[in-house]
Design a protein that fits this description.
CAP_sf; 182 residues; alpha+beta; 9 strands; disordered N terminus; 5 helices
Length: 182
């Protein structure tokens, strides 16, 4: 069986949607301009898929911990996990998993505006995967290997939120939102 991952996606197929970032607009959460990296990345690998049920909250925690470990190794300050940001990230992952929205950054500005925090800049990484035994690890590896996603995870942000959702097909959708509130 095919494993797939996609980024901003991953049977084990890993697909990444290009990262979104907002330009700095000090102290205003509703007037930030969004720029989109126009590239899409897809990594496809042949492998045997497993019938694994995922505990999405443990995957969210794993993504958060792996990103902070990466940042620490590279001399960057650790991010603080924020429940409001995670809530918006989780809704987006659930909407993608349920087919309500396509695998994309569609609605990014609305997600960020729905977070009750003032911010200077924001970014988002999304991933989709299927067939990996550790979808969180595959997403993080994909983001690190993608210049646009790497820029987001190494960015000058202090808060983050992670949301993961899986559907009955075994597809796992991951969203990480980054905010700079300083």
């Amino acid at each position: 069986m095919l494993r797939q991952t996609a980024f901003g996606i991953a049977l084990s197929t890993l697909v990444l949607a290009s990262g979104f970032m907002t330009a700095s607009t000090p102290g205003n959460s509703s007037t930030n301009k969004t720029s989109k990296n126009q590239q899409s990345f897809g990594i496809f690998t042949q492998a045997v898929a497993s019938n694994v049920t995922f505990e999405t909250t443990s995957l969210e925690k794993s993504v958060f911990e792996q990103i902070n470990q990466y940042r620490a190794v590279h001399g960057l300050p650790k991010l603080t996990l924020n429940a409001n940001i995670s809530h918006q990230a989780r809704i987006h992952s659930q909407n993608m998993a349920n087919g309500k929205v396509p695998f994309s950054h569609n609605g990014f500005e609305m997600r960020v505006k729905a977070i009750p925090l003032k911010y200077n800049s924001a970014a988002e990484n999304v991933a989709f995967n299927l067939g990996y035994s550790n979808p969180a690890q595959q997403a993080v590896i994909g983001w690190i290997n993608s210049p646009g996603h790497l820029k987001n995870l190494k960015g000058r942000y202090n808060l983050t939120g992670v949301g993961v959702a899986a559907n009955s097909k075994g597809e796992v959708y991951l969203t990480q939102i980054f905010l700079n509130t300083r």
